[in-house]
Amino acid sequence: MGLGIAIAxxxxxxxxxxxxxxxxxxxxxxxxxxxxxxxxxxxxxxxxPRLIDSRLGPGSELSILVPVLxxxxxxxxxPLHGQQLHLQHGGAGSWLEALGSDTSVIMxxxxxxxxxxxxxxxxVVFSILGNYGYTPDVQSTSAGHYEDKHxxxxxxxxxxxxxxLAQRNGFLFWxxxxxxxxxxxxxxxxxxxxxxxxxxxxxxxSPTIQTLDLTWDVERPTSVxxxxxxxxxxxxxxxxxxxxxxxxxxxxxLQAITGDTRSVxxxxxxxxxxxxxxxxxxxxVEADWFIQATCQTSLESLGGLVRAHTVVEVxxxxxxxxxxxxxxAVRHTIDSTAHKMDVTLVRNGWGR
Length: 352
What we know:
Structural class: mainly beta
Distance between the termini: 43 Å
Number of strands: 26
CATH class of the largest domain: Mainly Beta
Mean pLDDT: 92
Number of domains: 4
CATH architecture of the largest domain: Roll
Radius of gyration: 23 Å
CATH topology of the largest domain: Phage tail proteins - horseshoe like beta roll fold
Shape: globular
Strand content: 35-45%
């Protein structure tokens, strides 16, 4: 019995490589998506053919494709960069796992030394992404870096540098791919607006999850105080941020729930108020996720996929904890019996 998926090598579907025993794809918020594919490895003509298969060697680019209701979805596309091997005497019971990641790992292969002047952070990211053939999905930023003040210096790989800029602004950076192989690089705040991409139901008719584990912790800042001196004009830069800039996934925000002032002072070497406020907003975005939940569903029970960086709706968790959540991570585990999805959710509010 097959896995019900397709695996492509360098853009071409390969039916032999789809004969794996298990496939695992891990998507995480603002991180590189990884995959592992396990194959049985038996002795044939005195050798272990999978171990020398060039399709599973360095430089091979694999795509994992899942059909859902007549539409093909690409879980991940990227280079294979490792193997894990288990051998048993006689061959039977031996296996090989092919390990890979999405193509953002290519951005981490070389350290770059660059000086960026008279640009914003988003300008820099847009320029860097142009070197990798991605379709850019870049949200504009206000932080400026100027020749007559302080330039932006890069002494790191493009991937780590872009992620550092993302964190400064309260953004995420991740790469997605469609079924045709077109890759999009996203540099923006968590997309919280719009309709939910899936509905997770518990305690009601037609449940799609059987358990939901949830924790919350409100001991975190809800505002930022930031003051700095412009070294050129000697004027004070105001970087105060009164509240998180994110859309609230619920009827009450963290600030409304706590009902008091929970501030943190931000120290950062900047040249303008836009940069200081961007960093303050980034700090609050990171602190905003005071609710975390985990659950498991399957392609069969849900009738669709759950993907990281999307919004889902939870029903049946009571008036406080039912509502929209942001998907922080999904571990897809696919074998001959099911396509299971272990889901991590985060939320920055409660109530419907």
